[in-house]
UspA domain-containing protein (Leadbetterella byssophila), 271 residues
Amino acid sequence: MKKIFVATDFSKGANNAAHYARILAQKSQSALTYVHIVTLPVVDPMVSAALLSTTIDELKADAEEELKNLVKEDKLQGLESEYIISFEDILETLKQHNEEGLVVVGKTGQRTFLDKLIGSTAQNLIHHVKQPLLVIPEDFTGDIFENLCYASKLEFDEAKEIAQALEWNKYGKKDMIIAHIIEEFPLDIQSNTQYIQEILKAFPERGFIIKQYATEVFKKGIFEFIEKEKVSMLFVTTKKRNMLESIIDPSATKGILPKANIPIMIFSHQD
């Protein structure tokens, strides 16, 4: 059974992420693992070790009570779940539980739960864990499977990631849209036409439709396409580039997360 890891600090954003993680778990017959990172308090150096230890124990006990309630609720819904309480950062914790599945986090405003934990962005996380990352906005309340879309500039072979997106789309109501976002001056790593033909060949049974959308800037085009097509969840793939490529054409997914108002699932492409 695959696992869905849900990072939580019990905030409104984290609770909404947990809500949708449960929906995904029910659909995919996955088990849930809640991950809570205990943030150690900043204390006066004069505070005794005994008092600090007591404070840490109380933080852990409070978190455990919240997590036990989540597991109890899951059991009532017929879901299998467990929890992890860690004093390490989120990256190290997930690396220690590097199983197949999905990592789900909440996003409040323009910051994700991960930003608070690791002082970085969710884009950085996906380069360090192998699981796909799903970011759920705090105020999102729609049907996540209503209209799924995989967006790309088609700069490299993304058949593996498209296949993963199609696995989720089988719980949807429509064919998935593959949005080919065409910039005015794209970095021509390989012919876009060739990649489209390879996609069609790789998926003879389809389950998707390809739509092209011209734009000056990838990020701008993504948001315009989301609005136009009423996308309910977006799939994107990011790829580590070498220094030269990063200077010429920074990662196309950079900057999408902060302003997104729908769930985004991010795959990390590995050569």
Remarks:
- The longest helix spans residues 49-76.
- The domain at 3-137 is CATH 3.40.50.620 (Rossmann fold).
- The CA atoms of residues 239 and 269 lie 5 Å apart.
